[in-house]
Amino acid sequence: MTEYIVKQNALADFFKSLASGRRLLTPRGTGDKCKLGETPPDQVTLEYTNTHLSPKSLLFPQTERLMAFHNERDKPNGYVYQSLGDNGEPTVVFGIRPCDARGISISNKVFQNDRFTDPYWKGKIDQTVFVGLACDAPSPQCFCAAMGGSPFGESGLDALAFRQGGDLGLKTLTDKGAELIKAAGAQEANLADEIKKLEATAIEAQGVKADYKPIDDLDLMDLFKDPHWVATAENCLNCGVCTFFCPTCHCFDIQDEASERGGVRMRNWDTCMSWLFTVHGTGHNPRPTKTERVRQRFMHKLKYIPLKQDGVRGCTGCGRCVAMCPVNIDIRSVALKMTQTAPSPA
Ligand code: SF4
Ligand code: SF4
């Protein structure tokens, strides 16, 4: 890990170098118009809170064509298949927030692990370098620090940038990141103490004091059976908005769009909030009411993923679901309710 500095008057050349021979994607626009897009190096801005949608669609698009098939009547085996996998292209993502990079790191363990590698995800992530921008302007919904992250978090990033007055400080975190930042002409600097100071200020600015730690120590079945889930789910519309905005939600459905002679197999985002998502071919549905579906969403984020991923929570505290839920269901209040679960007698 090495720290670097890019002076304000060298920023244009720095971004030009990042864009050389590859796509440069950065947040563009403001408010709910802010989204990651291809950006000319002289138009990169550091003034935004976060992108409206999470960046997960870069690696896991809302709809992805996996393969095409067609039936050749004169061929003995009938169908001919062709992979349509999008393997991505060399890309630098500059300005992703640490909460969202952490979301990618959590989903990476789902799409790439010791039992399975998703070629569509792998093709894209292998060609992408993620340079985060530390958060120094949290929204009222941000709570990454309470979820084990930090406005200066490093998980999922190849390098972390931060604003230092008009200059840009950088810390490289992987070989990929080091190669990119060095080649872009950044000057080595000793910024470790400065980073610590800025991080403490950013956590203070977030101002979240809630402690969700008790959930980690509570028994899974006690949490699962707690009666509060009925009331917690009462207002939920099962619209799925929270899951589509969430950087760590990764449920999908595979569908074939076919005609007599062929078709395309697609992977589409799906949501555990939908009754259809879990209904079996027999008609049986293990999550028949919204109580089970709402419980699944919060238990997955706050208990099941931490059990599978060494304590890392499946919520990064990005605050999108808090901001977007049409009936104001707030994961921070639900997590607090979960901390109050009574342990069953020994
Ligand atoms: S956004 Fe709110 S109402 Fe919609 S499914 Fe999520 S929790 Fe329920
Ligand atoms: S559960 Fe909500 S706050 Fe947590 S990562 Fe997902 S969208 Fe963000």
Description:
The protein has 346 residues and is an alpha+beta fold. It has 2 domains: 3-206, no CATH class; 213-339, no CATH class. It contains 13 helices and 12 strands. The protein has helices at 11-18, 98-111, 119-126, 175-183, 192-206, 213-217, 220-225, 228-233, 241-245, 275-278, 290-308, 320-324, 331-339; strands at 3-6, 23-28, 35-38, 63-71, 79-83, 91-96, 128-133, 159-164, 167-172, 187-188, 252-258, 262-269. The strands form 2 sheets. It has an 8-stranded mixed beta sheet with strand order 3-2-6-7-8-9-1-10. It has a 4-stranded antiparallel beta sheet with strand order 5-4-12-11, with no helix packed on it. Strand 2 and strand 3 form a beta hairpin. The protein is globular and about 65 Å long. The termini are far apart. The model has no long low-confidence stretch (mean pLDDT 94). It binds iron/sulfur cluster (SF4) (2 copies). One iron/sulfur cluster (SF4) is lined by residues 236-242, 273, 325-327, 329.
Topology readout:
Layout (H helix, E strand, L loop, with lengths): L2 E4 L4 H8 L4 E6 L6 E4 L24 E9 L7 E5 L7 E6 L1 H14 L7 H8 L1 E6 L25 E6 L2 E6 L2 H9 L3 E2 L3 H15 L6 H5 L2 H6 L2 H6 L7 H5 L6 E7 L3 E8 L5 H4 L11 H19 L11 H5 L6 H9 L7
Parallel strand pairs: 2-6, 6-7, 7-8
Antiparallel strand pairs: 1-9, 1-10, 2-3, 4-5, 4-12, 8-9, 11-12
Number of discrete domains: 2
Uncertain residue ranges: none
Radius of gyration: 22 Å
Proportion of residues in helical segments:
25-40%
- What is the number of helical segments per DSSP (H or I, 4+ residues)? 13
Which class best fits the helix and strand makeup? alpha+beta
The topology string of helices and strands comes to EHEEEEEHHEEEHEHHHHHEEHHHH
Which molecules are bound in this entry? Answer: iron/sulfur cluster
Number of strands: 12
Mean pLDDT, as a whole number? 94
Task: Based on Cα principal axes, name the global outline.
Answer: globular
The main sheet orders its strands as 3-2-6-7-8-9-1-10
Task: Tell me what portion of residues adopts beta-strand conformation.
Answer: 15-25%
Distance between the termini: 47 Å
Largest sheet: 8 strands, mixed
